[in-house]
Design goal:
Helix content is 55%, strand content 12%. By secondary structure, the protein is of the alpha+beta class. It is elongated, with a radius of gyration of 50 Å.
């Protein structure tokens, strides 16, 4: 008799139940092997005749080990007066009847097919007369057997059956093979197999009888009624029909009724734990394998908790970003799983999601302690630096860092964290370079090459205008497709086709998505100042986040680029747009003039190649590169160099020093073609014939 402490209650296992478990454990493997032994034997037989002829062989292979095991178990109990023959004679009466009945039925079908009923009947009479029988009883699979065989049965099975089987074999050899006999052969396998296994269970019950009668070892097996009662308690428990005060006692009652039901152990473990390990010991004793089931249940619990709390992480393409956003949920999942392990007294390694959560939290911690590529010792320091970064960028917003006075003002500011103050000066210089409009394309190219390898840049078909790629070859075509104004400046382009007809382009004004085909055209335009982010949400799936509008999904048509590099590319794309938007507003407004100017006026205005007059101060650019003051002709309104005597457009005399000159000026004009002085009112120049307006 064994006692277990299950959930704080004593559970006593009667000796008879332990004996039953002993018998089950001793013969379980032998009975389990019967099916495989039969299958191997049956596949080696050619037809029904050989099956019948060699039936004794499979009986010996399958049942013989059980009989020998029975004798060994009796001798272990001090019973030495029983050997195999005596055991068969005394406790196995007719246990092979079911098996031979199936054989008889099979051969009857063969006889019918061959139309030799009379000969077969005589054969059967001789065969049956050769089998000795005694009256007996016992237990079998399902409750009862037909009887038990005498000691001569085994001999009949192995000896007589052979000799008589030869006769049948001789007879069968004369039978022509046909489809019907093949069908009988195939159909007889399953019932013969079942009958042989039942023979094994019959030996098991004979062992129980022998142990009781010979050694006073009684076995108490679970009846069908007890099994049904235990199952009913389990179902009512699962449905919540049992009041809380009675739930534990009822489950313990179910366990006593059927200690072989694994689900009962699982329910007790789930709700009441197993602090001392006795529940697992008892389950192991009765062969229920709770330990293995605990692993399955614990793993499932961890999966369920993690899936419920961290659904975004599971579905996210950018895992790192999802980890940071869901750090609190990951921490909650870990806490639940650790508590589950404590309550059920199990090791944490039984729940793989625990180690995953710890790894994810480590990643989250590293990400939260990292600011602009620098890892700080604590989150507090990192958060302080992040705060100072925000203050810094707020301070420089709308400032022209190319202006020395404004730049110095920014450099002189101090911030809360020592760590940020230490890098502030270098950060100011870096931002000054990034916000220098003449360097815009160099800065864009630098940020892409610093963060991405050449293969990734090539696979994305990246073009930084006048720095990398072949966009210049496609620019005229793209401008035609997009109908982009001449003053709009392409800065960088991701071409989505080899011919340049499809792509995503960032200019000084817009983000453009374009495509032109035989039957399809696309041209979406978004204000560059309203682009708030670019996020990779799937393989070759990118989302453009737009302020005040729905997000836009776009494909870059990339292949052979890892998920990680696609995520990095999206982040780099976003930073490149920030570089454009961070330009001083006036610089961004005049970027075309800044990039394509050939000379700078004394007032600071950049002049384009075709411009001779400054649009800001109206100074005129002379051929020698000198800027001079200008004035308007009072006659035709043309802009002229100040101090000129005559208008170069209409010939009007501009300089008067006396009343006489004034009168002359009123009467005399200058030919606009050759400069010849002609009287006012003349329609043509007297020297060159130019018409005077």
């Amino acid at each position: 008799m064994t006692k277990y402490d299950i959930a704080g209650n004593a559970v006593q296992i009667p000796t008879e139940v332990e004996n039953e478990r002993y018998v089950r454990q001793s013969i379980a493997n032998l009975i389990g092997d019967i099916g495989g032994t039969f299958d191997a034997w049956y596949s080696s037989q050619s037809d029904c005749a050989s099956v019948n002829r060699n039936a004794g062989t499979v009986l010996e292979k399958a049942i013989g080990p059980l009989v020998r095991k029975a004798v060994k178990m009796l001798s272990d109990q001090g019973v030495y007066s029983i050997d195999e023959k005596i055991f068969i004679s005394k406790y196995l009466n007719g246990f092979t009847d079911e098996f031979y009945d199936v054989l008889d039925d099979m051969m009857d079908r063969i006889s019918d097919i061959d139309d030799q009923l009379e000969e077969e009947q005589r054969y059967r009479q001789v065969r049956k007369a050769s089998r000795g029988r005694v009256v007996g009883g016992g237990f079998g699979l399902g409750g009862a057997l037909k009887g038990m065989a005498t000691a001569g049965v085994m001999n009949a099975a192995t000896g007589m059956a052979h000799s008589l089987g030869n006769a049948v074999g001789n007879m069968g050899s004369s039978i022509s093979a046909g489809a019907n006999k093949t069908a009988v052969y195939k159909n007889a396998k399953a019932p013969l197999r079942e009958a042989l296994i039942n023979c094994g269970y019959s030996v098991g019950n004979a062992i129980r009888n022998a142990l009781e009668h010979e050694a006073n070892v009684k076995c108490k097996y679970v009846t069908a009624t007890e099994s049904a009662q235990a199952e009913a308690i389990l179902q009512n428990y699962a449905q919540g029909r049992i009041p809380e005060p009675q739930r534990k006692n009822q489950m313990l009652q179910a366990l006593m009724l059927n200690p072989y039901n694994t689900e009962i152990y699982e329910a007790i473990w789930n709700d009441f734990g197993d602090g001392n390990g006795d529940l697992r010991k008892m389950s192991l004793y009765f062969g229920c394998g709770l330990e293995q089931r605990i692993q399955v249940m614990a793993c499932k619990y961890g999966d369920d908790v993690f899936n419920a709390d961290c659904g975004e992480y599971l579905s996210a393409f950018n895992k790192t970003g999802a980890i940071v956003r869901n750090e609190a949920n990951i921490r909650d999942s870990l806490k639940k799983m650790e508590q589950y392990c404590q309550e059920h007294d199990i090791e944490e390694n039984l729940i793989p999601k625990i180690s995953l959560c710890k790894e994810l939290l480590q990643t989250a911690d590293l990400e939260n302690r990292t600011v602009e590529g620098v890892l700080y010792s604590t989150r507090e320091i990192a958060n302080s630096v992040k705060s100072d970064y925000l203050k810094f960028y707020n301070n420089i917003q709308g400032k022209d860092l190319t202006d020395n006075e404004q730049y110095q003002e920014i450099c002189d500011k101090t911030y809360d964290s020592e760590e940020f103050n230490a890098i502030c000066r270098s950060l100011c210089e870096n931002e000054r370079l990034l916000r220098t409009p003449e360097r815009i394309r160099d800065n864009l190219w630098s940020i892409f090459t610093d963060r991405l390898d050449e293969a990734t840049l090539t696979n994305f078909r990246l073009n930084v205008v006048e720095r990398f790629g072949i966009f210049e070859q496609h620019e005229v075509m793209v401008r035609t497709i997009t109908q982009m104004p001449a003053e709009e400046i392409p800065l960088f382009v991701i071409e989505r086709s080899n011919n340049g007809k499809s792509g995503v382009m960032v200019t000084d004004r817009n983000l453009r998505i374009y495509s032109k085909g035989l039957l399809f055209s696309e041209n979406q335009i978004f204000d560059i100042r309203k682009i708030k982010g670019i996020e990779c949400v799937g393989r070759d799936k990118f989302m453009i986040i737009i302020d005040g509008a729905d997000s836009v999904n776009v494909s870059f048509k990339v292949r052979n680029v890892t998920d990680e590099k696609q995520i990095i590319f999206a982040d780099t794309f976003e930073r490149a747009i920030q570089i454009v938007n961070n330009l001083y507003p006036l610089h961004l407004q005049n970027l075309y003039r800044i990039l394509y100017s050939v000379v700078t006026c004394t007032c600071g205005t950049r002049l384009l190649p075709n411009e001779k007059v400054c649009p800001t101060c109206q100074k005129m650019l002379k051929r020698n590169g000198e800027f001079v003051e200008t004035e308007y002709c009072p006659n035709c309104g043309s802009l002229l160099q100040k101090g000129k005597k005559f208008c170069s457009n209409c010939g009007f005399h501009l300089i008067v020093s006396s009343e006489n000159d004034l009168n002359v000026a009123a009467l005399i004009m200058q030919c606009p073609n050759c400069g010849n002085s002609i009287n006012a009112g003349k329609k043509f120049c007297t020297r060159c014939g130019t018409k005077i307006q």
